[in-house]
Specification:
The complex is a heterodimer of chains A (545) and B (667). Chain A is 73% helix and 3% strand. With 545 residues, chain A is mostly helical. Chain B contains 25 helices and 3 strands. Among the domains of chain B are: 272 residues, no CATH class; 27 residues. The chains are: A mainly alpha (545), B mainly alpha (667). At the A-B interface, helix 7, helix 9, helix 13, helix 15 and helix 17 of A face strand 2, helix 5, helix 6, helix 24 and helix 25 of B. Chain B: Pfam families: Proton_antipo_M (PF00361), Proton_antipo_N (PF00662).
């Protein structure tokens, strides 16, 4: 059983090594990409197997597939892995998104001198390290991997990114590294505390969790803040967010998806796995602070998203709003809100990946991420516009899409204990509609504009005359010109549709049938709630009076 | 609330069996149609519209079968739940995906699929020149499926699914003519104002969950008495906010007239007959909650009364035929809202008016569409005139809808509007006068604006003779028509208009006569109370005469002001203040713009500045400072030693701090 988990960790790392070796020779570049994709596919199969073996019934252990070997006995740290429901869903998301991302990158143009195999290697390395981050049950191991995941991502942004990639990569690295260092202080603090209280210093998660109740509140608060600094930067809460728009805008599309969709989830995952169970009293004590930052993030991120003029920065800001929702659910301490947040982490990964991919496909055609350079894209590329709409609807959590379930659970679950925060965040759904529909209006509908008007056909003129005067569907006047423009701008190719199809399917299937995922998350969240030491506020008969 | 008005307990909810077990087909058929057309894309262009029609007609057949089955049952066995699967189950929350099959939902299902079928058929002809006709039918099918989920769902969360689903369909269809900038704005506005209402609906659901631990109708309504009075008032008001958004009620009415940017069949189906009545459905469905919340009920009636006046007043000022009808819809839904807020004395009246309105308003919109079809998509009534000769079927069917809407004796609206006015007189000594007075006044205004519309469109001189068409139709661009050529529409368009006209004439008498509808709905809405049986501010038997008199006054005034004068083709600019106010939608848009839109834009711009200069500025400033320090350090150090040293230093400081902290605090 535990061999499966080890395989989940090793397969992408081995894949990264192989691809890295192939990347050294240009003639093997294509082979490298294919091999990488194959490794990603193996990971996906492994996850399916693991998922099918994962037990959810009553009395299941906190961590399944557990594995633990001596690592550095000198200070009691072990190479210990295990899966709970939340870790499993995150690893599953990883296994789904990596092949999609690699398939997308297959046809992406790279900066000069860079190889696709190299890129593939970096993505697979990130995947491997992330599996470790989610599966680690030793706090020191977690810390090491937490810092290690910065390295491949630093190169993804710094080597494959946009024009300001150096600035963005350094900012991303320094920011995260700083947070990590502060967390390191707390990790060591935990060790020292365990030495005092348990008689023997340890980094074992289960032992430290057992010690949590003995730690005085003030100690808990200091240690909490150390972890919080790292996680609040990683899953950026306002005001620790400013690295994200830069990193998101400068990262290549595929890297941005891994960054926003997965890497940043380590922050919210960390809240659930480390801050809550290890510092339960501090978590309750400081919850109002986190909740305040969370709802500020919801509104602030949405408003800023609405004001963006760059598509990639826009996606980054929507993510800041979504991280606000996730943090709200985690610190509202109810089974609905916390399951909602855990599911939100998965759903946000799916919807952001899809949104980012569609933006990437748009940039492939228009050559720029400036919104002002697009208009009426739906006329020349209806499939692309349709995909943008689906991604957008998922982003604003329309019922029937995956994200509705999670956002609804977060808000509904937060309401009984934290009505004020829940109400403010609920107002956020109006802002979400605002930013998304506004972008759709500016880029996908309306008269043809900017990059959508290829060449100097009559379109430029007709877009100005007919569209500008608010007239009719006049700009499709010249049919032949229209056909030429459509052909040159180009709707989605079969391959591009194939990349997006699994995500569309997930959006709809998880919107109507979230049951299997909820089932996996529920026991872990129940365990976390009891580790924090709070009862679910709502009983089957409502809030007890 | 007098004991007389207290509702009898609703019948027990039974599991669905027999034919009702196949009720999911109602939703599945149009949903499948939408799916095939969306996924199939251009490949389905040739037959897409036929599939669209077929699925909705099939769904109508299912509705009829279910309705017949329901009629065959005794009243106390007509409320059925068809559980399909566990949708969202976490902790104590268990949201079931299921359907509620009862008289109220079946009545709506018949309306939606019946009128929906007619409008689908009409659209085959109406959209025949549009290259995107298949997409149109896909979206229209999506709408029907979502609307059926809304009315058939067996809990508040399934209702919410349908609620936002119809919002999406409405958004897509309002913005259907994607080349028009105004269509994009109108679509976005509709969705946003609806989402404001949705916040209310969502919060009401959260409160129900807190109070009862469930959101399913069966349990919520059975245990409504356990909810604390304060929470109950809050829930009813929040549901009302949702209803206001969806149904274009004050203060969220401004999106509905703009929604006329969509193709006219959309205006008929979504923005007149079905979706915009969802708010009335929501409150009628939640009757066990409202019956226990007198404050909530009172606010519903007030909102209804305000809206029915706003709609009627603004409707008098517009020259755009669709916008007049849109404000008329706002006003008529105000009537329904007023009625549904009155409790058992008004529930059946509200639903009856909703049904007859569904017929005559859909008919009027299809008629308007037929006029536009024959007049190069023109909507300005000042450019019409004398059209009755050129489009006789349109004219006569339109006249039937017109008479029904103004409440001409023995036409549909006459019966159902009377019921509402009568019921409003029983609201109490003060409220009865105010609500009843508003409803009567608006009846006169309705006659005025509709008569004005009739006169400007179908009678008088043919003002279009000397004018050139303005709209540039895609098909006509090569050879723009020099003149208007009004003509009657094809049979696929006129037949639905004729059928709806028959409904406009006879539905009222049929539904209200012998209280057919009221008795059928008993199982869902409780035993109806007769206005005659409760105290009213004056004898309710006078209402038909009063209403008819006011209707004649309104129509007569319109004849004097419009029919006997020449209608200028250009809109007069020098007009009195009230007219100016009405033309500006009673400043609803100006208020929205000034209070919400502009400050919102300023705020987000200010935040962008703050984010770049403030938050990020601090970050980069710190980085620059550190960079500066290390730069100075560099002068004293060489090689890489510097960075190692700095790192070691930083790390040591952190470590020491950590050890001190833990040692000091934890020891």
């Amino acid at each position: 059983m535990s061999a499966l988990l080890l395989a989940l960790l090793l397969v992408p790392l081995v894949g990264a090594a192989v691809c890295g070796a192939l990347a050294t020779r240009e003639d093997l570049d294509r082979a490298g990409r294919i091999v990488g994709l194959a490794f990603a596919a193996v990971s996906l199969v492994l996850v399916v197997v693991v998922w099918s073996q994962f037990a959810t019934g009553p009395g299941t252990p906190r961590f399944q597939f557990a594995l633990s070997v001596d690592w550095i006995p000198a200070f009691g740290t072990r190479f210990a892995l295990g899966l709970d429901g939340i870790a499993l869903t995150m690893i599953a998301l990883l296994a789904v998104l990596v092949p999609v991302v690699l398939a997308f990158a297959f046809t992406e143009k790279l900066p000069p001198g860079r190889t696709g195999a190299g890129f593939t290697a970096l993505i697979l390395a990130t995947q491997g390290v992330l599996v470790g981050v989610f599966a680690a049950t030793d706090v020191f191991l977690f810390y090491v991997l937490f810092e290690a995941m910065l390295i491949p991502m630093y190169f993804v942004i710094g080597r494959f990114g946009g024009p300001r990639r150096q600035y963005a990569a350094v900012k991303f690295f320094l920011y995260s590294f700083l947070g990590g260092l502060i967390m390191l202080a707390s990790v060591i603090g935990l060790f020292v505390a365990s030495d005092t209280r348990l008689g023997e210093g340890t980094f074992d998660w289960t032992a430290l969790q057992g010690m949590a109740a003995q730690l005085p509140l003030s100690t808990q608060i200091w240690l909490f803040l150390g972890f919080f600094a790292a996680f609040a930067i990683k899953a950026p809460l306002v005001p620790f967010h400013t690295w994200l728009p830069d990193a998101g805008a400068e990262a290549p599309i595929a890297g941005g998806i891994i960054l926003l969709g997965l890497l940043d989830k380590v922050g919210t995952f960390g809240f659930l796995r480390y801050t809550l169970p290890l510092f339960p009293a501090a978590s309750q004590e400081l919850a109002p602070l986190v909740l305040t930052l969370a709802v500020i993030g919801v509104l602030y991120g949405s408003l800023l998203a609405a004001a963006q003029t760059d598509l990639k920065r826009f996606v980054a800001y929507t993510s800041i709003a979504h991280f606000g929702f996730i943090a709200l659910g985690i610190f509202a301490f109810s089974s609905q809100s916390m399951v909602g947040s855990s599911l939100y982490m998965v759903n946000h990964g799916i919807s952001t990946a899809m949104l980012f991919l569609v933006v990437g496909l748009l940039i492939r055609r228009g050559g720029t991420s400036a919104m002002t350079e697009y208009g009426g894209v739906g006329r020349v590329a209806p499939l692309l516009a349709g995909m943008f709409l689906i991604a957008g609807l998922s982003t604003i959590s329309l019922p029937g899409t995956n994200s509705f379930i999670s956002e609804f659970l977060v808000l509904l679950g937060a309401f009984p204990r934290e009505p004020v925060f829940s109400v403010i965040a609920t107002v956020g759904i109006v802002f979400a509609a605002l930013y998304m529909l506004w972008v759709i209006q500016r880029t996908m509908t309306g008269p043809l504009r900017g990059a959508a008007v290829v060449g100097d056909g009559p379109g430029a003129a007709s877009a100005a005359t007919f569209g500008g005067s608010g007239g009719d569907t006049g700009s499709d006047a010249d049919e032949s010109w229209m056909r030429r423009t459509t052909a040159r701008f180009g709707d989605l190719t079969r391959g591009e549709v194939a990349v997006l199809t699994p995500l569309v399917a997930l959006v709809l299937v998880l919107g109507f049938f979230p049951g299997p995922v909820l089932e996996v998350l529920d026991p872990t969240v129940s365990a976390t709630l009891s580790e924090v030491g709070v009862a679910d506020p709502v009983t089957p008969n409502g809030v007890p009076r | 609330m007098s004991p007389l008005l207290a509702a009898a307990p609703l019948p027990e909810v039974l599991p669905a069996e027999g034919a009702a077990g196949a009720a999911w087909l109602l939703v599945a058929l149009p949903a499948l149609g939408a799916l095939v057309l969306f996924v199939g894309g251009r490949r389905t262009d040739r037959w897409g519209h036929l599939l669209g029609v077929a699925t909705v007609v099939a769904s109508f057949v299912v509705a009829v079968v279910l309705f017949a089955g329901s009629l065959a049952l005794p009243a106390e066995e007509r409320v059925r739940d068809l559980g399909l699967y566990e949708w969202i189950a976490v902790g104590s929350l268990n949201v079931e995906f299921g359907l509620r099959i009862d008289p109220l939902s079946l009545t709506f299902a018949l309306l939606i699929t019946g009128v929906g079928s007619l409008i689908h058929i009409y659209s085959v002809g109406y959209m025949s020149h549009d290259p995107d006709r298949r997409k149109f039918f896909a979206q229209l099918n999506l709408f029907v499926a979502a609307m059926l989920v809304l009315v058939l769902g067996n809990g508040f969360v399934t209702l919410y699914l349908g609620w936002e689903g119809v919002g999406l369909a409405s958004y897509l269809l309002i913005g259907f003519y994607t080349g028009r900038r105004s269509a994009g704005s109108a679509a976005k506005k509709a969705f946003l104002m609806n989402r404001v209402g949705d916040v209310g609906l969502a919060l009401a659901i959260f409160l129900l969950f807190v109070e009862l631990g469930t959101t399913q109708y069966a349990e919520v309504f059975a245990r409504a008495g356990e909810i604390s009075p304060g929470a109950l008032t809050a829930i009813t008001l929040l549901l009302l906010l949702g209803a206001c958004g969806k149904s274009g009620q004050f203060p969220l009415q401004a999106w509905l007239p703009d929604a006329m940017e969509g193709p006219t069949p959309v205006s008929a189906l979504i923005h007149a007959a079905t979706m915009v009545t969802a708010g009335v459905y929501l409150i009628a469905r939640s009757n066990p909650l409202y019956d226990l919340a007198p404050v909530g009920q009172l606010v519903v009636t007030i909102i209804g009364a305000i809206t029915l006046l706003i709609g009627a007043i603004v409707g008098c000022a517009y020259d755009d035929i669709k916008k007049v009808l849109a404000y008329s819809t706002v006003s008529q839904i105000g009537y329904m809202m007023l009625a549904v807020g009155l409790g058992p004395v008004g529930y059946a009246a509200a639903i009856a008016h909703l049904l007859t309105h569904g017929f005559f308003k859909a008919g009027l919109f299809l008629g308007a569409g037929s006029v536009m079809h024959g007049m190069a998509d023109e909507t300005d009534m000042r450019r019409f005139g004398g059209l009755w000769r050129h489009m006789p079927v349109t004219f006569w069917t339109f006249t039937a809808g017109f008479l029904a809407l103004i409440g001409f004796p023995f036409f549909s609206g006459f019966y159902t509007k009377d019921l509402i006015i009568e019921a409003s007189l029983t609201a109490g000594p003060v409220a009865g006068w105010i609500l009843g007075g508003a409803a009567l006044l608006a009846a006169g205004l309705t006659a005025f604006y509709m008569t004005r519309l009739m006169l400007m469109t179908f009678f008088g001189p043919e003002r279009w003779r000397d004018l050139h068409p303005r709209r540039i139709d895609a098909a006509d661009l090569e050879d723009p028509p020099e003149h208007y050529h009004p003509h009657e529409s094809v049979a696929s368009m006129t037949v639905p208009m004729i059928l709806l006209a028959i409904g406009s004439v006879g539905a009222g008498a049929f539904l209200v006569g012998g209280e057919r509808l009221g008795h059928y709905l008993e199982a869902s809405l409780g035993v109806p109370v007769e206005p005659y049986d409760v105290p009213a501010v004056f004898y309710v038997g006078l209402v038909p005469y009063l209403a008819t008199a006011l209707m004649l006054v309104g129509a007569g005034t319109a004849y004097l002001l419009v029919g006997r004068r020449e209608v200028p083709v250009e809109r007069p600019q020098r007009v009195s203040l009230p007219v100016r106010a009405a033309r500006a939608d009673l400043f609803a848009n100006a208020i929205n713009e000034g209070l919400i839109a502009r400050p919102g834009i300023w705020l987000s711009r200010a935040l962008v500045y703050l984010d770049n200069r403030g938050v990020d500025g601090v970050v980069n400033g710190t980085a620059a400072m550190l960079g500066g320090t290390s730069g100075r350090l560099r002068r004293t150090q060489t090689g890489f030693v510097r960075s190692y040293a700095l790192t070691i230093l930083g790390g040591s400081v952190v470590l020491v701090a950590a050890l001190l902290t833990v040692g000091g605090l934890g020891g």
